[in-house]
TrEMBL record:
Belongs to the intradiol ring-cleavage dioxygenase family. Residues 54-83 are annotated as: Disordered. Residues 231-277 form the Chitin-binding type-3 domain. Gene3D superfamilies: Aromatic compound dioxygenase (2.60.130.10), Carbohydrate-binding module superfamily 5/12 (2.10.10.20). SMART domains: ChtBD3. This is Dioxygenase. The keyword Transmembrane applies. Keywords: Dioxygenase, Hydrolase, Membrane, Oxidoreductase, Transmembrane, Transmembrane helix. The lineage of its organism: Bacteria, Bacillati, Actinomycetota, Actinomycetes, Kitasatosporales. The chain crosses the membrane at residues 21-43. It comes from Streptomyces olivaceiscleroticus.
Length: 277
């Protein structure tokens, strides 16, 4: 297990500077997974000391892709495709992890691979089978949900999930996700506050949220799924898809995530949903 210990790092936990698209979407009331609605302040936007980090006002700075972390010794290829890792009689606290995968232009990435693996409630990895291992793909909105248990602790590490994330045809991001308020976060040299999930209690267990940002190029132009309403005026009641373009008050905007427009969600006031182009 010590193999997973990192070499001494000069990178200490620091103030989280994450894209806040999802957080803004929540504030704007945009359509998001039920598991994310009504949650507390996103834990991943908190520093290791609990202080709120400054908000990033727009999801277009392109400077904060999800950090990489070491794979560790327990990854196994060819995990089964599944979103639910629970098995009958499996001990542990139930956990769901929901979120989105975004690309460099802050547009959602559909069909992105997420391959999760983790320790069981006892802190052990299944190195002979595929218990608590599984891969899945983001849906058309770039969203994913994993159903599993809270991983147990094992010597030398704080609580964590392992994951590989890959946009179609792009390099693999290998990283780990962390839980807030874990005592060992302060002593695990690998811990990175930028990889903290937002975790709350609920639904008979714990619900976590995290959105990945991959350092992959994206064309924020027309949606590949069909002709966008290019040039048409933004209008309430319209179902927009990521990549759709509209005009509003003489300016052009591109849709960042699918939603149905409502009063108060005008593009200039909903940066989670629209970006000026
Ligand atoms: Fe691990």
């Amino acid at each position: 297990m010590d193999n997973e210990r990192p070499s001494p790092s000069t990178e200490s936990p620091r103030l989280v500077r994450r894209k806040t698209l999802l957080r803004t979407a929540l504030a704007a009331g945009a359509a998001v997974p039920v598991a994310l609605i009504g949650g507390p302040a996103l834990a991943r936007t908190l520093s290791s000391t609990g202080a709120a980090a400054p908000l990033t006002p727009a999801c277009d700075d392109g400077d904060d892709p999800t950090p990489e972390q070491m794979e560790g010794p327990y990854f196994k290829p060819h995990s089964p495709q599944r979103t639910d890792l629970l098995e009958p009689g499996m001990p542990g606290t139930r956990l769901t992890v929901s979120g989105y995968v975004f690309g460099g232009a802050c547009l959602p990435v559909s069909g992105a691979l997420l391959d999760f693996w983790q320790a069981d409630d006892n802190g052990d990895y299944d190195n002979t089978g595929f218990r608590l291992r599984g891969h899945q793909y983001t849906d058309s909105r770039g969203a994913f949900t994993l159903t599993t248990i809270v991983p147990g602790l094992y010597p030398g590490r704080t609580r964590h999930l392992h994951v590989k994330v890959q946009a179609p045809g792009r390099p693999v991001l290998t990283t780990q996700l962390y839980f807030p308020n874990e005592p060992r976060n302060n002593t695990d040299m690998l811990f990175d506050a930028r990889l903290l999930m937002n975790v709350r209690n609920g639904n008979g267990g714990r619900e976590a949220a995290f959105d990945f940002v991959l350092d992959v190029p994206q064309d924020p132009g027309p949606s590949p799924t069909g002709p966008p309403p290019s040039g048409s005026a933004w209008a309430t009641g319209t179902a927009y898809r990521a990549g759709d373009r509209v005009t509003h008050a003489g300016r052009a905007y591109v849709c960042l995530q699918a939603h149905t427009a409502q009063p108060g969600w005008e593009p200039p006031t909903a940066p989670a949903l629209w970006r000026a182009v």
